[in-house]
Amino acid sequence: MIVTMGVPARQHVEGTLDARASAEARERFIRMAERELDRAYRLAGLLLGNGADAEDAVGDALERAWRDIGRLRDTERFQAWFDRIVVNACRDRLRRRGRIRFVELEGQDGGRAPDAFRAVLDSDEAFRAMAALSSDEREVVVLHFWADLTLESVAERLGQPVGTVKSRLHRALGRMRDALPMPGHEGAAL
Amino acid sequence: MTDDLERHLRRDLPTAELPRAPDSLHVRLQAVAASEPRQVAGRAVRRTGRLRLLIGLAAILVVGGAAAVSYVGLRRPNIPTTVDGLPVMTVSEAVAAHAAGRLADGRAAIRGWWSNGQVGHSCVPSIEPVGELELRCQDGEFGITELDEPIFVIDMSSGLVTYEAQGPHLSPYVANELEGIADLFGLPIVNGQRYPPVPILVVGHFDDPRAAQCRAAARQICLDRLVVDRIVEFSPESVPTPGVTVPPTAFPDPPPSPLFDAVACAGDVPYSFVGWTTTAALELPYDRPGHVFAMVTKDPVLLTADGWEDDPNGSGHQFQIWGPKICIAEEAPGHQGEMGFGSVPAGTYVLWDDGLRVPGSDPVRPLGSS
After folding, report:
1. Is pLDDT at B297 greater than 60 in this prediction?
2. What is the pLDDT confidence band of residue A11, given thresholds at 50, 70 and 90?
3. Which among B273, B305, B303 has a CA at the least distance from the CA of B291?
C-alpha cells in the first residue's frame, strides 16, 4: 500500500510529492509505449491495410492507453494489454470506414510516397488474399501468424472463445485459398 | 491441418519488411503523455461500484475496517457561537445565507469538519486562463463538511471507487500565505490511514473580487467560493487517531448495483448466479482485478455467436458450443462498458450437427467418428 503525506496545497499546482509521482508514471508509460510502438504500428497496418490509418489508430490507442494506464495492474502485461487497445482502435476505424478497401495509387499522384504496408501486402499473393477477409478473420490471421500468438492468446486478446477463434481461422484460410489465383487447383494451397 | 498456405504465412508474414512507426507517432506519444490525462469525469455522489479513473495516483488508501481508536488526552475544541461579531454557522447555513444575500459584505464564520482527500493526479490543461478561485482539478477533494465525514475518499479495495461526502460540504480557497495552512494540508497519515475529519472554525467571505478573473462558465462558482480569511480553531488533537489497520473489507456491503440485466446476457432463462464475484471464483480463463458483476445461467445455452460453425479440422461437419453461460461486466482497458463471456467448464460441450456431443469447448471430433 503506497501512502503519501498531505502537502500544503496551492490551488492549481500539484504538491511536490504528487508531481513527482505523476512524473514517474508518465516516464514509465512512455518507456513501455516506446518499446511497443513499432509493433503496434505494424499490427495496425496489417489490420487496416495502410500506414495512414495505422498511424491514426495507434495514436488513438496511445491516448486510450494513457487514459487507462491506472487500470494496468501488471506492467509485464503491457504488450498484451496494448494489443487489445490497438485492435479495438482498428475496429473503430474500420467501422467508420465501412469495409477494408485497397485504393490503387495512380501513377502520377503528385509525388506522394507509396504506402509501405500496401507495398508489402501487394508483394505476395497470400498477403494480398488477406484483402478478402472480414475484419474479424483478419485479426485472427494477423495475431496468429504475424504476432505468432497461440490461438488461446489470440482468444484472450480478442475476448472470444477459443472455439470461435479456431473457426474464424479456418474460415479465413478457406477464403484466402479461394482468393488465390490457382488455375486448375481450386482451393489448393501455395 | 497445416498446409502450404499456413506454412507460408507462418514463415513469411512475420519476416515481411514492415515499416517502423513514423517519427510522428513518437512525437504523439510524448504529447499524449505530456498533455496530462483527463481527470475522472464527474463525481461519484454515492457509492456506486462504477469504476472511475484517476491517473498518476500517488496515494492508495483503503477505506473500511474497524480500527481501534484512542481517546486518551483528547482536547475538545472550543467552538464559540460568535466570532468577530459574526454568528457561527454551519456549512449549509452559510451557503443559504449567502445565496439569500443575508451576509454583510459576504462575510461568514463557518464551523464544520476539515478533511483532505487529495491524491496525486492532474487534469488536462485548460486552453483559457483559469481563475485561482476555480480550484480547477481539486474542487471537492479537500474542505469543510457539515457532518463528521471525509469530503472525498478513494477506495482501491475493489476496483476504483470514489466517495463524496453525503452531507453539505465546500472546498474553500485557502491562500498559500494564510497562517495555519500547513496544518490544514499537513495532517499525517496514521497507521496507514488518512487523518480523520478535524473540527474547524474559520472566518471568510464570499463574492471575492477575484471571481472576475474566472472563466465565464465558472464565474458563479467563484462568486460562491468561500475565501478563508482566518483559521480560528483547528484541532487535530481533538479527534481520535486511527488504530492499527485491520485487513480491508474485501467488498462493500451491501454490494453495488447490478451493471446489466438478463437481456444483455442470455435472455429470459434461469440463472444460478447474479451478483458480484471474482473471475477466479468463476474459473474464467482470464483474470480481472477485484470483483466483477456476473450472471451465470443455470442450464447450458448456445455460446457460439454465429450459430453453426465449420469444423476447423475440415471434417465437413458443423458444430455449436453449449454450456452454462457466464457474463461479466468487462472493465478491462479498452473494453469499459462491454461484456465478457465464458462458460462453466463442467457443463460445457460441443454439439455436432450429427448429434454427437463432446465435453469441453474444443471442437475436435473423437477419433473414429466420421
Report:
1. yes
2. very low
3. B273
Interface check for A128 against chain B (CB to CB < 8 A): the answer is: no
Q: Count the helices and strands in chain B (H runs, E runs).
A: 7, 18
| CA atoms within a 13 Å half-sphere pointing along the CA-CB vector of B316 | 2
Tens-place pLDDT, residues B127-157: 778 888 988 777 888 899 988 888 877 655 4
Chain pair A-B, CB pairs under 8 angstroms: 259
Element (H, E) at B198: strand B198-205
Helices and strands in chain A: count of H runs, count of E runs: 8, 0
Judging contacts by C-beta atoms under 8 Å, the chain A residues touching residue B335 are 84, 88, 159
Burial B121-154 (b: 16+ CB within 10 A, else e): bbbeeeeeebbbbbbbbbbbbbbbbbeebbbbbb
Number of Cβ within a 10 Å radius of residue B301 = 15
Chain B positions touching A66 (Cβ under 8 A) are 32-33, 37, 55
Q: Please state the ipTM of this predicted complex.
A: 0.78
